[in-house]
Design a protein that fits this description.
The complex is a heterodimer. By secondary structure, chain A is mainly α. Chain A folds into 2 domains: 94 residues, no CATH class; 271 residues, ABC transporter involved in vitamin B12 uptake, BtuC, CATH 1.10.3470. Helix content of chain A is 70%, strand content 1%. Chain A is built from 18 helices and 2 strands. In chain A, strand 1 and strand 2 form a beta hairpin. Chain B is mostly helical. Chain B has one domain: ABC transporter involved in vitamin B12 uptake, BtuC (Orthogonal Bundle), CATH 1.10.3470. Helices cover 70% and strands 3% of the residues of chain B. Chain B contains 13 helices and 4 strands. In chain B, the strands form 2 sheets. In chain B, strands 1-4 form a two-stranded antiparallel sheet. In chain B, strands 2-3 form a two-stranded antiparallel sheet. In chain B, helix 1 crosses helix 6. The chains are: A mainly alpha, B mainly alpha.
């Protein structure tokens, strides 16, 4: 899909561009998004044919009409996305971002209701408490993995349930926090709410800047520090990194704790926000459902290729189509259509490596077809389109694949 | 209250727990067996939760459409089971094609499949039924099986207040065990999860075996999901609660059962016991008096899973090649 954008004079650099990792992951992400949207469109066609075209149009463009909301809803999933992506870098699958997010939310809300602190300091303490809550909940799968050899996926899922039941119970049994007849949490005191950016009809607040700053910080940690290097090395090959003297167990626990802290911050950011109605704030309804934002974080992380910078953009994108999804309701589609689209995007992101190769190959073929007039030998070979078989025969892929297998 | 009454009450509670435990254990057992087939063939199947829900949804949808035809409820259940198995199998193809042919990351694919189904169910149920799921009115419950139910003790334990899912589940356990250990196909399947290249070198088609493993997990997962809807949800399915993490619990059951059918059976009973404590807590005298928040009972199966895994995982031996896509060219 980028073929058009590359002009002829760039042709000779094409190999360099298509060979670069960032480019191929970007095209793969776009391909996954495209397939997700196509699938969503098909579902819409089946569900209600006459409304499908305006419906998908609403999904795609609805977010532009509510940019402040897009930003507001992007912030928590940016954090859960970072929580998942950061653990991915180490080869850990943190499916427990939901539980960490919920725990972070509870800690933050608790501090918001019961700590008596001056304005200006209160919300900062609440955010820090949220981070602590998430950290504790992320620490557990890390400890189970490092010391007891329990698969982090199972642990995180179990602790999603345990955390959700615990938090819902704590909230319902804490007077002053819960309004029984509304079945929701009470409004937070103003001092505990994050400073609003003052955009009317929106809860958008300064947390977006904090989130972006954290993403950049993580980028630096991953790329410029020894810890980040060890983390990625362990992700590529655990045995090699242990052999090289890295403390794998410590790194696993540390990674999960940091990932948990990030998700906990997401919970804090989501619920310390002022709501669009003055004097109120965002409330939580304890209905024994696992927070979907943790799972959205998986989609965000995969689309952003686990890179902190990529996650900033992918979270905004996911938030954008989610807002669009609320607009699709006008055409009779339920909001869940977006969850279907997101899950399809995750599904296709899972064979990102293959898709990268497909994208690369398409470009290479274009390159060869352009070269053909010059009578290059390789041109003919490449045009024998045998996608799967030929991809496997390429030596460089087996390397890429090994990375993917971890 | 004299000691005789207390004893009688205790015995009643015991019967109650066993009668309630079995319909809970069977879905766990079947789904864990499905997970076993998949993992022993070398594919991590984290999508069991989604497969269960998919099977449960289509099984219940079938029940919904035939419930007014006057068919015998047990016949409806059997047909629903077949529908559940077929739909589970179809859904598992999404995993097997991605994992086996396209060499995708199996955990991520599974997660995607888990997320897709609840959203899909909510979407369609809200648009067509104006509710969050499918609600049926068929009574699958059997209060007493003729003749067998009259046997002292055993009759009351196993043939009263039950569902036929229990007997089907046990039959499937026997079939699965024989298939797994006594047939050539079972042996080949196990080889592919341990050392696929060795299996390949003696002419076993690893790709086909892995498709078989995932396909079997789809069939068992679909049946397990429908049995969950029958035995636990009273013939209903709901996009919000789904199968309440039973697919994941089944994975824990499988690990606790060390990827072996008979051990999985006992592991499933163990977990089902904890799951049954929550609804029976008001019947058990001393538990009733302690006045514990219901949330703790809801947490119990998940917490028990963690405790069990903490003690067993150090020694646990997963199939060696699970999760690694098979590449013929790699040595």
């Amino acid at each position: 899909m980028h073929n058009e954008s590359l002009s002829k004079k760039n042709v000779f650099h094409l190999k360099k561009i298509t060979g670069s990792k960032a480019f191929s992951t970007f095209t793969a992400a776009l391909l996954a998004i495209l397939l997700g949207l196509v699938f969503g469109f098909i579902v819409m066609l089946i569900a209600s044919p006459p409304n499908a075209v305006p419906g998908i149009f609403a999904v795609l463009t609805g977010g532009f009409r509510r940019i402040a909301d897009v930003i507001y809803y992007a912030t928590p999933i940016m954090m859960t996305g970072l929580a998942v992506g950061f653990a991915f870098k180490m080869g850990l699958f943190n499916i427990g971002a939901s539980g960490q997010y919920t725990m972070g939310m509870f800690f933050a809300l608790y501090a918001g209701f019961f700590f008596n602190l001056p304005r200006g300091l209160h919300w900062i303490v609440c955010v820090a408490m949220g981070m602590l809550g998430g950290l504790l909940w992320g620490l557990i799968p890390g400890v189970f993995k490092a010391l007891l050899n329990v698969n982090e996926v199972i642990t995180s899922i179990m602790f999603n349930y345990i955390g959700m039941f615990l938090v819902d119970m704590w909230i319902q049994t804490t007077p002053g926090m819960y309004v029984a007849d509304k079945a929701r949490t009470a409004y937070l005191p103003a001092s505990a709410q994050m400073p609003s950016l003052g955009i009317p009809n929106s809860g958008v607040n300064i947390s977006i800047f904090i989130a972006i700053a954290i993403a950049i910080l993580l980028f630096i940690v991953l790329n410029k520090t020894t810890f980040g290097y060890e983390l990625k090395a362990t992700g590529y090959n655990r045995h090699a990194s242990t052999y090289a003297g890295m403390n794998g167990k410590r790194n696993i626990i540390l990674t999960m704790a940091i990932a948990g802290a990030l998700a906990g911050l997401g919970g804090a950011f989501a619920f310390l926000a002022p709501s669009s109605i003055p004097g109120s704030s965002v409330t939580y309804e304890p209905i024994n459902v696992i927070a979907p934002n943790g799972f959205n974080g998986i989609a965000v992380a995969l689309l952003g290729n686990s890179s902190p910078i990529g996650i900033i953009f992918s979270s905004v994108f996911i938030s954008h189509i989610q807002r669009g999804g609320t607009q699709a309701r006008l055409f009779g589609y339920e909001y869940e259509i977006i969850d279907v689209v997101i899950s399809v995007i995750i599904y296709f992101s899972a064979f990102v490596m293959l898709m990268q190769e497909v994208a690369k190959k398409a470009l290479r073929q274009l390159l060869d077809s352009l070269k053909r007039p010059f009578g290059k030998k390789g041109a003919e070979k490449a045009s024998d389109a045998q996608p799967a078989a030929e991809i496997m025969a390429e030596p460089e892929l087996s390397e890429v694949e090994k990375e993917g297998q971890k | 209250m004299n000691s005789n009454d207390l004893l009688k009450e205790f015995i009643d509670v015991f019967y109650f727990i066993v009668q309630n435990m079995l319909p809970v254990a069977i879905p766990l057992l079947l789904v864990a067996l499905g997970g076993m087939f998949s993992e022993r063939s070398g594919v991590i199947n984290i999508a069991l939760e989604g497969i269960m829900l998919f099977g449960a949804f289509f099984g219940c949808l079938f029940v919904y459409y035939v419930q007014n035809t006057g068919l015998n409820p047990q016949v409806i259940l059997l047909l629903g089971m077949v529908i559940g198995a077929i739909s589970g199998f179809i859904y598992s193809l999404l995993l097997s094609v991605a994992a086996v042919n396209l060499k995708a990351d199996q955990t991520i694919t599974g997660t995607a499949l888990n997320l897709m189904i609840p959203a899909g169910i909510l979407l369609f149920s809200r648009m067509y039924f104006n509710s969050d799921g499918v609600t049926t009115r068929v009574r699958f419950y059997i209060s007493k099986i003729p003749v067998l139910g009259d046997i002292p003790v055993i009759g009351r334990l196993f043939f009263q207040n039950t569902y036929i899912t229990v007997y089907i589940g046990l039959l499937l356990l026997v079939i699965c065990t024989i298939f797994f250990y006594k047939t050539r196909l079972g042996l080949r399947l196990r080889a592919c999860g341990e050392h696929p290249h060795a299996a390949d070198s003696v002419g076993i088609n690893v790709y086909r075996m892995r498709h078989l493993g995932v396909g079997l997990s789809g069939i068992l997962g679909g049946i397990g999901g429908f049995f969950y809807a029958v035995g636990i949800m009273d013939g209903n399915v709901n996009g919000h609660t789904g199968v309440a993490g039973f697919g994941f619990l089944a994975l824990a059951v499988m690990i606790f059962g060390q990827w072996k059918p008979i051990r999985i059976f006992f592991a499933a009973l163990f977990f089902a016991f904890f799951r049954t404590l929550a609804p029976s807590r008001s019947l058990i005298p001393f538990v009733r008096d302690m006045n514990i928040n219901a949330a703790y009972f809801k947490m119990l199966p998940y917490a028990a899973t963690m405790v069990v895994l903490a003690f067993t995982s150090k020694k646990s031996r997963a199939p060696k090649a699970e999760g690694i896509p098979f590449d013929k060219g790699q040595r």
